[in-house]
Design brief:
Blueprint: H1 2-11, H2 25-35, E1 39-43, H3 50-62, E2 68-72, H4 78-84, E3 88-90, H5 93-104
Parallel strand pairs: 1-2, 2-3
Helix pairs in contact: 1-5, 2-3
């Protein structure tokens, strides 16, 4: 999922910083401060990773960063989005590009 979204976003002309997998929340915050990226995408494969996603989103918000957060994964839905505090969710890779277009006003 993540790699497909990265490929689609790059193909649509967006600059993507792919931090990989199992990324600590501090790395997200540091990279967002460094790059000023207006959009953060998080992807999870397993329901057990949901709390780590929530911790990452909370850390971004507590850092005072003006960043829109989208989450994605097979089981992601509105309830999960609200639980983790994200702004958008996607269950298909192509939805990630649609969300980016909304965020960037394209």
């Amino acid at each position: 999922g993540k790699n497909i979204v990265v490929m689609l976003l790059k193909g649509a002309g967006y600059r993507v910083v792919d931090l990989g997998v199992d990324v600590p929340k501090e790395k997200f915050v540091g990279t967002l401060k460094e790059t000023g990226a207006p959009l953060l995408g998080l992807s999870v494969l397993l329901t057990g990773c949901q709390e780590n996603m929530k911790h990452a989103v909370t850390a971004v918000k507590e850092a005072g960063l003006d960043t829109t957060v989208m989450i994605g994964g097979n089981y992601i839905n509105e309830k999960v989005k609200e639980h983790v505090g994200a702004d958008y969710f996607a269950t298909r890779a192509s939805d990630g590009v649609d969300i980016a277009k909304k965020v960037f006003g394209a």
